Amino acid sequence: MTRQIAITHVRITPIAFRDGPLLNAAGIHEPWALRAIVELETNDGRVGISETYGDEPMLRVLQQAKDLVIGLSPFELNQMEERVRATITATPGAVEFELAPGSHAAKNAPKVISTLEVAMLDLQGQIVGAPVVDLLGGKVRDAVPYSAYLFFKYAEHIGKPYAPDAWGEGISPEQIVAQARRMIDLYGFQSIKLKGGVFEPAHEIACMQALAEAFPGMPLRLDPNANWTLATSIKAAPQLDEILEYYEDPCPGLEGMAELQKHTKLPLATNMVITTMDDFRKGCEMGSIKVLLSDHHYWGGLRATQTLARMCRLWGFGMSMHSNSHLGISLMAMTHVAASVPNLTYACDTHYPWQEEEVIKGGRVKFDNGAVRVPVTPGLGVELDREKLGELHEQYLSCGVRNRDDLSQMRKYQPEFTGKNPRF
Ligand code: GKR
Ligand code: MG
Question: Catalytic site residue 195?
Fold first, then answer.
């Protein structure tokens, strides 16, 4: 019976939503973050949904891949994957921005596979009446913990494109502690991550120390996005030893991380030096990391993330999850897969608290004690709000942003900003 159900239409809708003036190693977030919403429609009138990157290179490969699933049953995931691998290749000469996996042309195939897989699993769940997590072997936890993801930030965007957000400025240790307090009051998070690589390391370490004092016993992480040299990272380690649960991507490269790991008892974590299977093999051989941040959007989907989790278990690595600016469809996909992974040893990252807008029915996803409950309803457990989709697509058409570019945005504030990496 399920073989007679076939995918007949694919819709790709780019959207833009408001995003805060969040600082990072590369510069600053633009006022609009981009995503693409993908819908797969079947001959029996069902619609499976998925959310992914919305940068132009990604939209182009999605367009290229569109016809590959027409006629397939939503259960033919392996066929879909074969077809995508045969057709979608890396884009030579593409401009890549390291902090935005949406622009990583080398990962074109896994990114497309992931997008289609999530929507196909959503359809499968609707057809058999089971949540996606059950199609992944069932849940090992009822709710998935996320961490409070703090950013250094300005109070508002240059040029004031819209009213400022409610978070205010986040630069000083006191402001960072206040940001954490607000985020924890609103969402109940039980661990904290600070996006670093923005200011002098001494300032960022002072912020971590202030967080440790304000939230005794709370697991903390710092992520300078490889903007510290190896020497700086080694020097900073003893000051962070007692307060961090892991030290995320302080310095660049597998070699740098492997050398740093010899100088610190802190577990090193990454979403930068290991993003492919080839990196994984090298990272194991070199001893570069102890914790891997997975991300189904570029690792090839939810099932690929489960494989990655098994490999992490084999190598004794801890697991957490990476995030970029995203909405509720991605959050639910992350929640289903994270609920199915026994060795999720750390709370997942999410940018979700920084987003005010939504594209799903019922509005924003709720957090309870910092965790998202795993849906028990069929499929992903969330549906598209068509009116909101239309509004966010209109914003995409009018906002003018087509590729994430934190460097050029930063130059509007500081024309001399180089974006040199590592900078400290
Ligand atoms: O949103 O500015 C940001 C982050 O820096 C993001 O681009 C990173 O990919 O969150 C990410 C990370 O953990 O490296
Ligand atoms: Mg990171």
Answer: yes
